[in-house]
Amino acid sequence: MTQPQRQPIEPDSGRAVSGRPKRGVPEGLWLKCPGCKATVFRKDSEDSFNICPECQYHFYLPAEARIRQMLDEESFEEWDSHLMPCDPLEFKDRIPYKDRLESEQARTRMPDAAVTGRGYIRGRQVVVGITDFAFMAGSMGSVVGEKLCRAVEAATRLRLPLIIISGSGGGARMQEGILSLMQMAKVSAALGRFGKAGGLYISVLTNPTMGGVAASFALQGDITLAEPGALIGFAGKRTIWNTVRLELPEGFQTSEFLLQHGFVDRIVHRRDLRTEVARLIDYCAR
Amino acid sequence: MASPARLPFEEDIHELESLLLALELKSAKELSASEEILRIRKELARIKRLKYANLSAWETVLVSRHGDRPQTMDYIRMVFEDFTEIHGDRAFGDDRALRCGFARLGEHKLMVIGHQKGHTLQERQECMYGCAHPEGYRKAMRAMTLAAKFRLPVLCMIDTPGAFPGIGSEERGIAQLIADSLLQMATLPTPIFCVVIGEGGSGGALGIGIGDRVAMLEHAYYSVISPEGCAGILWKAATELTRPLAAEALRLTSRHCLRNGVIDEVLPEPLGGAHRDPREMANTLKNWALRSIRETGRPDTTDLIDKRFAKFRTMGVFREAGNGSTQASGLSAG
Fold this sequence. Notes:
Chain A is an alpha/beta fold.
């Protein structure tokens, strides 16, 4: 492009950056609950599944804590943690994607937004995939797509139930362009084969699950569960506003909204997730 | 949204074109202008060739949205015979942004599915500018089930800025329907051929985009998000300044998509873009469709689905730390 930059351009990863409060992401000793505005002692919430003791608001939960809560103690075996993102498009807004990746990796101590592996839920062996909102809003690029795809293939091969817990506000990752869009196709195709082979896939939607992630693996489960109050949908608020100039009604695109409209099987409190998933596995066991 | 009939980067082309037209009108009466006419014609071809060989990403987006660019229904008229449209998703309504129907192509029978954006204002409003709702994708899924049942190949023409972002669309589960469609296409037991004829915008495009062969017209674009959407998020606002930057950064041209291994083939456009010669464009598309059908034949369905999976399985670029290798689809990385 030859056009000169005439005005300062503010980049934004699509994720909350410093200066703006991070919705539901705990920092420090005390938390302000976005649900009831109560100030919550962080330790209290962490001792009870990262939930607000006052109003049951489900705080953001890092992948690693999710594993601790969902799986039997010490039962998790991580897979493919050596897969690292590249910058195939040499993407640059004001911050080059390469630099963004480095700072996200340093901040989250994760190579990319997905964790996959095998573990046990109340003694039942499962394959687990998690997308973590902390890393570039949990968006799906090549590494997330590849890891999930490998997890699905392993579940097919090992004939194990598959649980994917989505926390992806970003959908398909813009910085990897069309290759991110194709990850939707790739994971879907793997899930299609898994389904034909008779595999059980339980999808758990957490806050938030949007865009290309919602429009692919997150809504392709045999069973779709959602945590209470999660934001789930395709187009974000801003996109809808920019297109049709409509303010969204209260409670739009929440788990409860999706349940009401027939897109979620059950809303499950985080405390009960383990038990519910184990029970569903037993009903669908081959 | 449609680009204006006169693209901003085509001023010199339009100038020459009107000059040529004036001369041609004049020469109808007298013979002497003919040499000048020949010279201008030659010059015009040269400028067009030069300009269109070097379109920027944003200019490509503008060409792909040109109001006169042929759309799904135009190709259906020009390429196929006996088009028999089927309507409705059997659940909510009939989405005019996505058209489905039986059609004949020479000796072949097939199911044609495509986004329709509309040429006139009235048609555009009826078609929601090519932005399909959940019912559109449900209808497309119905059409594909039908095609598979009677072993007709499916041909998808992609031309959408994206699935419709609105309240009704969300309430009726646009994400769910795109997810369903991807799942169905991945294992559909009949050949699928896809071609991006104009805008390949995001999930709305991919929703009919999983195929055994995927092609793109030369000046079409295919992207994870529209340049406006990307600019709005990464640059905070979609302005005259940021849209071209986003378009460039997204690597959304046919050339880039081919290099990234996302499409199999680029179909060349007539000189100065498909909107200058829809017939020729239709011919190219027809030949591609015929060749694809012929070369695919009537494959064993298990084999077909395995190959389709293998095709998409390799897409993406990442590094395996430890052994130092880089996996990359296409030819770009290594």
